[in-house]
Prior knowledge:
There is one protein chain. By secondary structure, the protein is of the alpha/beta class. It has helices at residues 3-18, 23-28, 52-57, 64-75, 101-118, 128-134, 140-143, 161-166, 168-179, 181-188; strands at 36-37, 43-47, 84-87, 122-126, 148-150, 153-158. It has one domain: Uracil-DNA Glycosylase, subunit E, CATH 3.40.470.10. It is 50% helix and 13% strand. A six-stranded mixed β-sheet has the order 1-3-2-4-6-5, sandwiched between helices. The chain starts with a helix and ends with a helix.
Amino acid sequence: MSSDKARQLNQLAAEIVNNNVCPELAQSAKQLVMGDGNVDADIVFIGEAPGKNEDEQGVPFVGAAGKFLDEMLLEAGLKRTDVYITNIVKYRPPNNRDPLPEEKTAFAPYLDKQLEIIKPKIVATLGRHSMEHFLPGMRISDVHGQPKRKYGTVYLPLYHPAAALYNGGLRQTLIQDFKKIPAVLKKIN
């Protein structure tokens, strides 16, 4: 693990706290949930915001959606330790409500800096909130599982794992989309 990248990410987390980003969210959350995984990863997964379990443990995607994410990674021949996982918004919104546009905007520069530090080959967006940040104006139902190249980075829009927990039909779609990841990576390399 590149200790320099880890150090830069820790600095970035400290900056978020010091700059008092989204103070009302920070107040209602237990802690900042920066990200988890391999800082040298080729793939970064980005969700929308931490939930209750994530807020308690300080790690993204540790609840039911996280377990499903781990399952799908295995289907794609990957482990959680191979990838890096984060969210746009780094504090849990009260009652797990959707992050507000201004909250996403406040965290956007930090997310961009996080990606600059990690330099992944693929940015996989989980759900429409994170997809809209990178691919505005696209509909997830139209573009899921289809890699899009923009400014030299490949974005892979995916449904949010939580959506598949509520909608069984999406489960297979998500697994199929995940299974495309190794081929997309091979193409880039």
